[in-house]
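Researcher: Batch entry, complex prediction.
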Amino acid sequence: MNRGDLSMYQHHTILPGGLANIADRDGTVTGFRVQVRIGFPRGMPLSMVEGFEVYVDHDNGPATDAVHAAPTDVLFRLRGRTYRIDDLADIVDQRWEMGEVAELLIARAGGLTPGLHIVTVTQFLRVGPTPEPAKTVGRRLVELSADVGVATLEWNGPPPSLTVKE
Amino acid sequence: MRRAVSFYSYQQTYYLRELTLEQCVQTAVATGAKGIEVIAEQMMPGFPDLDDTFYASWHEWMERYGAIPLVHDMFLDVQLHRGRPLDLNGQFEMLRRDIRHASRLGCQYLRMVVTTPPEVVARAIPYAAEQSVVLLLEVHTPWHVEHEWIQRHLEVYSRFGPEVCGIIPDFGIFVARFPRLQGEYALRSGVRPEIVRHVMDVYDAASGTASGPTDLSFLVTDVLQLGGEPIDVAFAKEASRHVWSNPSTLLDVMPYVHHVHAKFWEMTDDGDEYSIPYTELIETLRAGQYDGYLASEYEGQLWLRDIDEVDEIGAVRRHQDMLARLLNEPG
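Model: C-alpha coordinates for the complex:
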Protein backbone atom coordinates (compact mmCIF):
# COMPACT_ATOMS: atom_id res chain seq x y z
CA MET A 1 0.00 0.00 0.00
CA ASN A 2 1.50 3.34 -0.93
CA ARG A 3 1.11 6.23 1.48
CA GLY A 4 -0.73 8.43 -0.93
CA ASP A 5 -0.54 10.19 -4.18
CA LEU A 6 0.02 13.78 -5.24
CA SER A 7 -2.02 13.57 -8.40
CA MET A 8 -4.97 15.71 -9.32
CA TYR A 9 -8.71 15.36 -8.96
CA GLN A 10 -8.61 12.46 -6.52
CA HIS A 11 -12.06 11.18 -5.59
CA HIS A 12 -13.96 13.45 -7.96
CA THR A 13 -12.88 11.31 -10.91
CA ILE A 14 -15.09 8.52 -9.56
CA LEU A 15 -18.81 9.11 -9.26
CA PRO A 16 -20.29 8.44 -5.80
CA GLY A 17 -23.10 6.33 -7.27
CA GLY A 18 -20.99 5.02 -10.09
CA LEU A 19 -20.47 1.38 -9.20
CA ALA A 20 -22.86 -1.29 -10.45
CA ASN A 21 -22.80 -4.87 -11.63
CA ILE A 22 -23.56 -5.56 -15.26
CA ALA A 23 -25.36 -8.50 -16.75
CA ASP A 24 -25.48 -10.28 -20.05
CA ARG A 25 -28.69 -10.27 -22.06
CA ASP A 26 -29.79 -13.49 -20.37
CA GLY A 27 -29.31 -11.93 -16.92
CA THR A 28 -26.01 -13.54 -16.03
CA VAL A 29 -23.86 -11.11 -14.07
CA THR A 30 -20.59 -10.91 -16.00
CA GLY A 31 -18.83 -7.96 -14.46
CA PHE A 32 -19.17 -4.45 -13.15
CA ARG A 33 -18.87 -0.88 -14.27
CA VAL A 34 -17.40 2.25 -12.72
CA GLN A 35 -18.51 5.71 -13.76
CA VAL A 36 -15.63 8.13 -14.11
CA ARG A 37 -14.84 11.69 -15.11
CA ILE A 38 -11.66 12.64 -16.89
CA GLY A 39 -8.62 13.05 -14.64
CA PHE A 40 -7.46 16.28 -16.18
CA PRO A 41 -8.78 19.85 -16.26
CA ARG A 42 -9.75 19.72 -19.92
CA GLY A 43 -11.32 17.37 -22.42
CA MET A 44 -9.36 15.67 -25.18
CA PRO A 45 -9.65 13.48 -28.27
CA LEU A 46 -10.14 9.80 -27.43
CA SER A 47 -6.85 9.01 -29.16
CA MET A 48 -5.06 10.63 -26.22
CA VAL A 49 -6.69 8.35 -23.67
CA GLU A 50 -3.92 5.85 -23.14
CA GLY A 51 -5.70 3.61 -20.66
CA PHE A 52 -7.04 2.83 -17.21
CA GLU A 53 -6.15 0.57 -14.36
CA VAL A 54 -8.83 -0.37 -11.88
CA TYR A 55 -8.50 -1.80 -8.39
CA VAL A 56 -11.36 -2.72 -6.13
CA ASP A 57 -10.75 -3.22 -2.41
CA HIS A 58 -7.00 -3.40 -2.63
CA ASP A 59 -4.13 -1.44 -3.98
CA ASN A 60 -1.04 -3.33 -5.01
CA GLY A 61 -0.63 -6.79 -3.57
CA PRO A 62 -3.02 -9.72 -3.70
CA ALA A 63 -6.01 -9.66 -1.41
CA THR A 64 -9.02 -11.84 -0.81
CA ASP A 65 -12.02 -11.00 -2.93
CA ALA A 66 -10.12 -8.16 -4.57
CA VAL A 67 -10.20 -7.12 -8.19
CA HIS A 68 -7.41 -5.77 -10.29
CA ALA A 69 -8.13 -4.97 -13.92
CA ALA A 70 -5.10 -4.29 -16.06
CA PRO A 71 -5.46 -1.67 -18.84
CA THR A 72 -6.15 -4.33 -21.47
CA ASP A 73 -9.02 -5.73 -19.37
CA VAL A 74 -10.95 -2.48 -19.29
CA LEU A 75 -13.59 -1.41 -21.80
CA PHE A 76 -14.37 2.28 -22.19
CA ARG A 77 -17.96 3.37 -22.78
CA LEU A 78 -18.93 6.88 -23.79
CA ARG A 79 -22.19 8.23 -25.20
CA GLY A 80 -23.57 4.78 -25.86
CA ARG A 81 -20.53 3.35 -27.58
CA THR A 82 -18.15 0.80 -26.13
CA TYR A 83 -14.48 0.76 -27.08
CA ARG A 84 -11.53 -1.45 -26.35
CA ILE A 85 -8.66 0.72 -25.13
CA ASP A 86 -6.57 -0.06 -28.19
CA ASP A 87 -9.44 1.08 -30.42
CA LEU A 88 -9.23 4.56 -28.91
CA ALA A 89 -5.78 5.19 -30.35
CA ASP A 90 -7.16 6.11 -33.78
CA ILE A 91 -10.17 8.17 -32.76
CA VAL A 92 -9.26 11.82 -33.13
CA ASP A 93 -12.69 13.24 -34.00
CA GLN A 94 -14.50 12.15 -30.82
CA ARG A 95 -13.66 13.71 -27.48
CA TRP A 96 -14.05 12.89 -23.84
CA GLU A 97 -15.14 16.28 -22.53
CA MET A 98 -14.15 17.77 -19.19
CA GLY A 99 -16.56 16.56 -16.52
CA GLU A 100 -18.39 14.22 -18.87
CA VAL A 101 -19.26 10.84 -17.35
CA ALA A 102 -17.81 7.76 -19.03
CA GLU A 103 -18.02 4.14 -17.89
CA LEU A 104 -15.31 1.58 -17.43
CA LEU A 105 -16.50 -2.00 -17.90
CA ILE A 106 -14.64 -4.83 -16.22
CA ALA A 107 -15.29 -8.56 -16.50
CA ARG A 108 -15.76 -10.47 -13.26
CA ALA A 109 -18.00 -13.50 -13.10
CA GLY A 110 -20.79 -12.82 -10.61
CA GLY A 111 -19.80 -9.17 -10.29
CA LEU A 112 -19.04 -7.46 -7.00
CA THR A 113 -20.64 -8.26 -3.65
CA PRO A 114 -23.23 -5.81 -2.29
CA GLY A 115 -22.04 -3.05 0.03
CA LEU A 116 -19.17 -0.59 0.16
CA HIS A 117 -16.10 -0.98 -1.99
CA ILE A 118 -12.87 0.96 -2.24
CA VAL A 119 -12.48 1.79 -5.90
CA THR A 120 -9.16 3.00 -7.28
CA VAL A 121 -8.98 4.15 -10.88
CA THR A 122 -5.73 5.27 -12.45
CA GLN A 123 -6.08 7.19 -15.70
CA PHE A 124 -3.27 7.53 -18.22
CA LEU A 125 -3.73 10.53 -20.53
CA ARG A 126 -1.22 11.55 -23.18
CA VAL A 127 -1.62 15.30 -22.68
CA GLY A 128 1.93 16.56 -22.42
CA PRO A 129 4.45 17.43 -25.10
CA THR A 130 6.21 14.09 -24.56
CA PRO A 131 4.78 10.58 -25.11
CA GLU A 132 4.73 9.65 -21.41
CA PRO A 133 1.12 9.85 -20.25
CA ALA A 134 0.08 11.95 -17.28
CA LYS A 135 -1.18 9.71 -14.48
CA THR A 136 -4.12 10.51 -12.25
CA VAL A 137 -5.20 8.31 -9.37
CA GLY A 138 -8.76 8.56 -8.08
CA ARG A 139 -9.86 6.64 -5.01
CA ARG A 140 -13.25 6.54 -3.39
CA LEU A 141 -15.49 4.50 -1.12
CA VAL A 142 -18.50 3.65 -3.23
CA GLU A 143 -21.58 1.63 -2.42
CA LEU A 144 -22.49 -0.93 -5.05
CA SER A 145 -25.70 0.15 -6.67
CA ALA A 146 -28.42 -2.47 -6.37
CA ASP A 147 -30.05 -1.94 -9.72
CA VAL A 148 -28.59 0.89 -11.78
CA GLY A 149 -27.17 0.24 -15.22
CA VAL A 150 -27.60 -3.49 -15.30
CA ALA A 151 -29.90 -3.67 -18.27
CA THR A 152 -28.59 -0.71 -20.22
CA LEU A 153 -25.08 -1.98 -20.71
CA GLU A 154 -23.95 -3.97 -23.67
CA TRP A 155 -21.50 -6.51 -22.46
CA ASN A 156 -19.98 -8.85 -24.94
CA GLY A 157 -18.14 -11.35 -22.83
CA PRO A 158 -14.78 -11.24 -21.16
CA PRO A 159 -11.75 -9.75 -22.87
CA PRO A 160 -9.77 -10.38 -24.92
CA SER A 161 -12.15 -12.46 -27.03
CA LEU A 162 -14.98 -10.00 -26.88
CA THR A 163 -16.27 -8.15 -29.88
CA VAL A 164 -17.19 -4.53 -29.55
CA LYS A 165 -20.76 -3.57 -30.36
CA GLU A 166 -21.32 -0.23 -32.04
CA MET B 1 -5.14 48.28 -16.24
CA ARG B 2 -8.41 46.41 -16.27
CA ARG B 3 -9.71 43.23 -14.67
CA ALA B 4 -10.55 39.91 -16.29
CA VAL B 5 -11.34 36.37 -15.15
CA SER B 6 -9.89 33.25 -16.68
CA PHE B 7 -12.46 30.46 -16.58
CA TYR B 8 -9.63 28.13 -15.66
CA SER B 9 -10.55 29.45 -12.20
CA TYR B 10 -13.99 27.81 -12.32
CA GLN B 11 -12.77 24.46 -13.63
CA GLN B 12 -13.93 22.25 -10.79
CA THR B 13 -17.30 23.96 -10.44
CA TYR B 14 -17.88 23.34 -14.12
CA TYR B 15 -16.41 19.83 -13.90
CA LEU B 16 -18.98 18.92 -11.27
CA ARG B 17 -21.70 20.55 -13.37
CA GLU B 18 -22.46 23.23 -10.80
CA LEU B 19 -22.05 26.05 -13.34
CA THR B 20 -22.72 26.20 -17.07
CA LEU B 21 -20.56 28.24 -19.41
CA GLU B 22 -23.17 30.98 -19.47
CA GLN B 23 -23.27 31.01 -15.66
CA CYS B 24 -19.47 31.32 -15.61
CA VAL B 25 -19.84 34.50 -17.65
CA GLN B 26 -22.47 35.84 -15.24
CA THR B 27 -20.38 34.87 -12.21
CA ALA B 28 -17.23 36.51 -13.57
CA VAL B 29 -18.97 39.73 -14.49
CA ALA B 30 -20.58 39.91 -11.03
CA THR B 31 -17.08 40.44 -9.57
CA GLY B 32 -16.69 43.64 -11.54
CA ALA B 33 -14.36 42.08 -14.10
CA LYS B 34 -15.13 42.77 -17.73
CA GLY B 35 -12.66 40.64 -19.64
CA ILE B 36 -13.25 36.92 -20.25
CA GLU B 37 -10.56 34.35 -20.87
CA VAL B 38 -12.00 31.01 -21.85
CA ILE B 39 -10.72 27.49 -22.41
CA ALA B 40 -12.68 25.80 -25.19
CA GLU B 41 -11.46 22.35 -24.23
CA GLN B 42 -12.88 22.80 -20.76
CA MET B 43 -16.24 24.37 -21.37
CA MET B 44 -17.15 24.17 -25.04
CA PRO B 45 -18.07 20.54 -25.64
CA GLY B 46 -17.78 19.62 -29.29
CA PHE B 47 -14.78 21.89 -29.90
CA PRO B 48 -13.34 22.29 -32.52
CA ASP B 49 -16.53 21.53 -34.45
CA LEU B 50 -18.75 24.19 -32.90
CA ASP B 51 -21.67 25.33 -34.98
CA ASP B 52 -22.98 28.81 -35.76
CA THR B 53 -25.63 28.47 -33.06
CA PHE B 54 -22.95 28.13 -30.41
CA TYR B 55 -21.05 31.22 -31.55
CA ALA B 56 -24.32 33.16 -31.77
CA SER B 57 -25.16 32.25 -28.16
CA TRP B 58 -21.66 33.21 -27.08
CA HIS B 59 -21.98 36.70 -28.52
CA GLU B 60 -25.46 37.04 -27.10
CA TRP B 61 -24.07 36.30 -23.59
CA MET B 62 -21.26 38.79 -24.05
CA GLU B 63 -23.79 41.46 -24.88
CA ARG B 64 -26.34 40.50 -22.25
CA TYR B 65 -23.81 40.46 -19.38
CA GLY B 66 -21.59 43.26 -20.63
CA ALA B 67 -18.57 41.01 -20.95
CA ILE B 68 -15.63 41.37 -23.30
CA PRO B 69 -14.29 38.23 -24.99
CA LEU B 70 -10.57 38.55 -24.57
CA VAL B 71 -8.47 35.39 -24.74
CA HIS B 72 -8.89 31.85 -26.07
CA ASP B 73 -6.50 29.42 -24.36
CA MET B 74 -5.05 26.93 -26.79
CA PHE B 75 -3.46 23.56 -26.14
CA LEU B 76 -1.16 21.84 -28.55
CA ASP B 77 -1.89 18.11 -28.75
CA VAL B 78 1.55 17.06 -29.89
CA GLN B 79 0.81 13.48 -28.79
CA LEU B 80 -2.53 13.29 -30.58
CA HIS B 81 -1.52 10.02 -32.24
CA ARG B 82 -0.02 7.22 -30.18
CA GLY B 83 3.65 6.73 -31.02
CA ARG B 84 3.62 9.40 -33.72
CA PRO B 85 4.09 13.00 -32.50
CA LEU B 86 2.60 15.79 -34.59
CA ASP B 87 5.22 17.31 -36.87
CA LEU B 88 5.58 21.07 -37.22
CA ASN B 89 3.09 21.07 -40.06
CA GLY B 90 0.50 19.26 -37.94
CA GLN B 91 1.15 21.67 -35.08
CA PHE B 92 0.71 24.63 -37.40
CA GLU B 93 -2.61 23.25 -38.65
CA MET B 94 -3.80 22.84 -35.07
CA LEU B 95 -2.81 26.39 -34.19
CA ARG B 96 -4.54 27.65 -37.32
CA ARG B 97 -7.71 25.86 -36.24
CA ASP B 98 -7.56 27.60 -32.87
CA ILE B 99 -6.88 31.02 -34.42
CA ARG B 100 -10.08 30.65 -36.40
CA HIS B 101 -11.94 29.72 -33.22
CA ALA B 102 -10.53 32.69 -31.28
CA SER B 103 -11.57 34.97 -34.10
CA ARG B 104 -15.10 33.59 -34.10
CA LEU B 105 -15.33 34.12 -30.33
CA GLY B 106 -14.32 37.72 -30.89
CA CYS B 107 -11.19 37.21 -28.80
CA GLN B 108 -8.37 39.58 -29.56
CA TYR B 109 -5.79 37.21 -28.10
CA LEU B 110 -4.85 33.54 -28.32
CA ARG B 111 -2.87 31.94 -25.50
CA MET B 112 -0.28 29.45 -26.73
CA VAL B 113 1.09 26.88 -24.27
CA VAL B 114 4.68 27.54 -23.37
CA THR B 115 5.92 24.43 -25.18
CA THR B 116 4.77 25.71 -28.59
CA PRO B 117 7.82 25.79 -30.91
CA PRO B 118 8.80 29.27 -32.16
CA GLU B 119 8.87 27.96 -35.77
CA VAL B 120 5.18 27.10 -35.49
CA VAL B 121 4.35 30.56 -34.17
CA ALA B 122 6.31 32.25 -36.96
CA ARG B 123 4.36 30.32 -39.54
CA ALA B 124 1.01 31.13 -37.95
CA ILE B 125 1.47 34.86 -37.37
CA PRO B 126 0.39 35.99 -40.87
CA TYR B 127 -2.87 34.04 -40.65
CA ALA B 128 -3.46 35.28 -37.10
CA ALA B 129 -2.94 38.87 -38.22
CA GLU B 130 -5.43 38.32 -41.03
CA GLN B 131 -7.94 37.07 -38.44
CA SER B 132 -7.19 40.00 -36.10
CA VAL B 133 -5.85 37.65 -33.42
CA VAL B 134 -2.63 38.37 -31.55
CA LEU B 135 -0.65 35.25 -30.65
CA LEU B 136 0.64 35.21 -27.08
CA LEU B 137 2.99 32.70 -25.51
CA GLU B 138 2.22 31.99 -21.87
CA VAL B 139 5.41 32.41 -19.84
CA HIS B 140 4.72 29.74 -17.26
CA THR B 141 6.76 27.82 -14.70
CA PRO B 142 9.26 26.23 -14.84
CA TRP B 143 10.24 28.84 -17.42
CA HIS B 144 10.51 32.60 -16.81
CA VAL B 145 11.04 35.73 -18.88
CA GLU B 146 14.83 35.47 -19.05
CA HIS B 147 14.85 31.77 -19.85
CA GLU B 148 16.59 30.75 -23.06
CA TRP B 149 13.37 29.25 -24.46
CA ILE B 150 11.39 32.46 -23.97
CA GLN B 151 14.27 34.51 -25.35
CA ARG B 152 14.24 32.33 -28.48
CA HIS B 153 10.57 33.11 -28.93
CA LEU B 154 11.12 36.82 -28.40
CA GLU B 155 13.87 36.81 -30.99
CA VAL B 156 11.45 35.36 -33.54
CA TYR B 157 8.72 37.78 -32.45
CA SER B 158 11.02 40.75 -32.98
CA ARG B 159 10.93 39.98 -36.71
CA PHE B 160 7.15 40.53 -36.73
CA GLY B 161 6.73 43.21 -34.11
CA PRO B 162 4.66 43.39 -30.92
CA GLU B 163 1.45 44.30 -32.74
CA VAL B 164 0.90 40.70 -33.86
CA CYS B 165 2.57 38.54 -31.20
CA GLY B 166 3.77 38.64 -27.62
CA ILE B 167 3.67 36.97 -24.24
CA ILE B 168 1.40 36.39 -21.25
CA PRO B 169 3.47 36.39 -18.07
CA ASP B 170 1.88 34.03 -15.57
CA PHE B 171 2.37 35.31 -12.02
CA GLY B 172 3.40 31.77 -11.09
CA ILE B 173 6.89 32.82 -12.19
CA PHE B 174 6.97 35.24 -9.26
CA VAL B 175 6.38 32.91 -6.31
CA ALA B 176 8.03 34.66 -3.38
CA ARG B 177 6.74 32.32 -0.69
CA PHE B 178 6.00 28.62 -0.90
CA PRO B 179 2.21 28.04 -1.09
CA ARG B 180 1.20 26.72 2.32
CA LEU B 181 -1.86 25.04 0.82
CA GLN B 182 0.53 22.86 -1.16
CA GLY B 183 2.48 22.03 2.00
CA GLU B 184 -0.71 21.05 3.82
CA TYR B 185 -1.84 18.99 0.85
CA ALA B 186 1.50 17.18 0.81
CA LEU B 187 1.13 16.39 4.52
CA ARG B 188 -2.35 15.00 4.01
CA SER B 189 -1.06 12.94 1.09
CA GLY B 190 1.55 11.31 3.31
CA VAL B 191 4.74 13.24 2.56
CA ARG B 192 6.97 13.12 5.65
CA PRO B 193 6.62 16.28 7.77
CA GLU B 194 10.38 16.92 8.01
CA ILE B 195 10.58 16.77 4.22
CA VAL B 196 7.72 19.22 3.77
CA ARG B 197 9.46 21.51 6.28
CA HIS B 198 12.81 21.24 4.51
CA VAL B 199 11.41 21.92 1.04
CA MET B 200 9.41 24.94 2.22
CA ASP B 201 12.38 26.37 4.14
CA VAL B 202 14.77 25.98 1.22
CA TYR B 203 12.26 27.52 -1.15
CA ASP B 204 11.53 30.50 1.07
CA ALA B 205 15.23 31.17 1.68
CA ALA B 206 15.96 31.24 -2.06
CA SER B 207 13.02 33.32 -3.24
CA GLY B 208 11.55 36.76 -2.83
CA THR B 209 14.93 38.47 -2.94
CA ALA B 210 16.46 40.78 -5.52
CA SER B 211 18.26 37.85 -7.07
CA GLY B 212 16.69 35.05 -9.07
CA PRO B 213 15.57 33.21 -11.01
CA THR B 214 15.56 30.27 -8.66
CA ASP B 215 16.60 26.80 -9.73
CA LEU B 216 15.78 24.42 -6.93
CA SER B 217 16.09 21.16 -8.83
CA PHE B 218 18.58 20.04 -6.14
CA LEU B 219 15.64 19.62 -3.76
CA VAL B 220 15.15 16.15 -5.22
CA THR B 221 18.70 15.22 -4.22
CA ASP B 222 18.14 16.72 -0.78
CA VAL B 223 15.03 14.66 -0.26
CA LEU B 224 16.72 11.46 -1.40
CA GLN B 225 19.48 12.14 1.13
CA LEU B 226 16.81 12.53 3.80
CA GLY B 227 15.64 9.03 2.95
CA GLY B 228 12.72 10.18 0.86
CA GLU B 229 10.37 7.63 -0.66
CA PRO B 230 8.71 8.09 -4.07
CA ILE B 231 5.94 10.33 -2.77
CA ASP B 232 8.46 12.55 -0.97
CA VAL B 233 10.52 12.83 -4.14
CA ALA B 234 7.38 13.61 -6.16
CA PHE B 235 6.66 16.46 -3.77
CA ALA B 236 10.23 17.78 -4.09
CA LYS B 237 9.91 17.67 -7.88
CA GLU B 238 6.64 19.58 -7.85
CA ALA B 239 8.04 22.10 -5.40
CA SER B 240 11.11 22.72 -7.54
CA ARG B 241 8.84 23.68 -10.43
CA HIS B 242 7.93 26.91 -8.66
CA VAL B 243 9.91 29.87 -9.83
CA TRP B 244 10.87 33.12 -8.23
CA SER B 245 12.13 35.56 -10.82
CA ASN B 246 12.47 39.26 -10.27
CA PRO B 247 9.37 41.25 -11.32
CA SER B 248 11.69 43.83 -12.90
CA THR B 249 12.44 41.28 -15.65
CA LEU B 250 9.04 42.30 -17.06
CA LEU B 251 10.29 45.79 -17.76
CA ASP B 252 12.65 44.57 -20.50
CA VAL B 253 9.81 43.01 -22.51
CA MET B 254 6.88 45.36 -21.87
CA PRO B 255 6.02 46.00 -25.55
CA TYR B 256 5.32 42.26 -25.86
CA VAL B 257 3.21 42.00 -22.69
CA HIS B 258 -0.38 42.14 -23.95
CA HIS B 259 -2.04 40.19 -21.19
CA VAL B 260 -1.28 38.85 -17.72
CA HIS B 261 -2.30 35.71 -15.86
CA ALA B 262 -2.85 36.86 -12.31
CA LYS B 263 -2.25 33.41 -10.84
CA PHE B 264 -3.32 32.82 -7.26
CA TRP B 265 -3.75 29.96 -4.82
CA GLU B 266 -4.83 31.42 -1.51
CA MET B 267 -6.45 34.69 -0.50
CA THR B 268 -5.62 35.47 3.13
CA ASP B 269 -8.03 36.94 5.67
CA ASP B 270 -6.35 40.29 5.00
CA GLY B 271 -7.37 40.08 1.35
CA ASP B 272 -3.91 39.40 -0.06
CA GLU B 273 -2.44 36.50 -1.96
CA TYR B 274 -0.28 34.36 0.29
CA SER B 275 2.62 33.55 -2.08
CA ILE B 276 2.74 36.15 -4.84
CA PRO B 277 3.75 39.80 -4.22
CA TYR B 278 0.88 41.52 -6.00
CA THR B 279 1.65 45.02 -4.77
CA GLU B 280 5.15 44.85 -6.21
CA LEU B 281 3.97 43.23 -9.45
CA ILE B 282 1.29 45.83 -10.10
CA GLU B 283 3.73 48.64 -9.31
CA THR B 284 6.13 47.11 -11.83
CA LEU B 285 3.43 46.88 -14.50
CA ARG B 286 2.45 50.46 -13.79
CA ALA B 287 6.07 51.54 -14.19
CA GLY B 288 6.08 49.70 -17.51
CA GLN B 289 2.91 51.57 -18.54
CA TYR B 290 0.96 48.35 -18.95
CA ASP B 291 -2.61 49.05 -19.99
CA GLY B 292 -3.96 45.56 -20.63
CA TYR B 293 -5.95 43.18 -18.45
CA LEU B 294 -5.09 41.18 -15.34
CA ALA B 295 -6.94 37.87 -15.51
CA SER B 296 -7.60 36.04 -12.24
CA GLU B 297 -6.37 32.50 -12.62
CA TYR B 298 -7.22 30.47 -9.55
CA GLU B 299 -5.39 27.23 -9.01
CA GLY B 300 -5.88 26.60 -5.29
CA GLN B 301 -8.52 23.97 -5.97
CA LEU B 302 -5.66 21.61 -6.82
CA TRP B 303 -4.71 21.42 -3.14
CA LEU B 304 -8.17 21.56 -1.59
CA ARG B 305 -10.30 19.19 -3.59
CA ASP B 306 -9.27 16.11 -1.62
CA ILE B 307 -11.05 17.61 1.42
CA ASP B 308 -13.91 19.19 -0.53
CA GLU B 309 -13.07 22.71 0.59
CA VAL B 310 -13.01 24.25 -2.85
CA ASP B 311 -14.80 27.57 -3.31
CA GLU B 312 -13.71 28.79 -6.72
CA ILE B 313 -16.41 31.44 -7.02
CA GLY B 314 -15.57 32.98 -3.63
CA ALA B 315 -11.83 32.82 -4.26
CA VAL B 316 -12.15 34.68 -7.55
CA ARG B 317 -14.38 37.30 -5.92
CA ARG B 318 -11.83 37.93 -3.15
CA HIS B 319 -9.02 38.06 -5.69
CA GLN B 320 -10.92 40.56 -7.83
CA ASP B 321 -11.53 42.69 -4.73
CA MET B 322 -7.78 42.74 -4.14
CA LEU B 323 -7.08 43.70 -7.75
CA ALA B 324 -9.66 46.51 -7.61
CA ARG B 325 -7.97 47.79 -4.45
CA LEU B 326 -4.47 47.63 -5.90
CA LEU B 327 -5.62 49.29 -9.11
CA ASN B 328 -7.13 52.10 -7.02
CA GLU B 329 -10.55 51.63 -8.50
CA PRO B 330 -13.19 53.75 -6.80
CA GLY B 331 -14.93 51.56 -4.18
